[in-house]
Amino acid sequence: QGPVCTNLGLKPGQRLTVKGKIAPNAKSFVMNLGKDATLLGLHFNPRFDAHGDVNTIVCNSKKVEEWGAEHRETVFPFQKGGTVEITFGVNQNDVTVHLPGHQFTFPNRLNLPVFDYFDTQGDFVLQSISWE
User: Fold this and answer.
1) Which residue, 12, 41, 70, 77, could crosslink 100 as a Cys pair with Cβ 3.0–4.6 Å?
2) Percent over 90 (pLDDT), the chain
């Protein structure tokens, strides 16, 4: 478990930029964005080799203990031991995930009006976080 941020107050039109280093022997890492640890509007989980997935990004939402349907992205711009910058743009109905050379959107299934919570877990060392 890496740092946990609360009271972010991210509203539509704002963005959160995360920079960090991926472990040299990484299997997967996670970034969660939501209201709190129990209400996750976006569970972002790049998997190098975990849970039967290889070089796949799995995204989901979580309401208390209930996960939604998994969404998979096959574009995988991450390298073990590398550094990466990821930006999450909050929109009215979804979150746009900006990766190196690729972007996609994930719906705001929980209809969160504001994203207050962010955490990282797994094989990732957070170097900086900023929002605007």
Assistant:
1) 77
2) 97
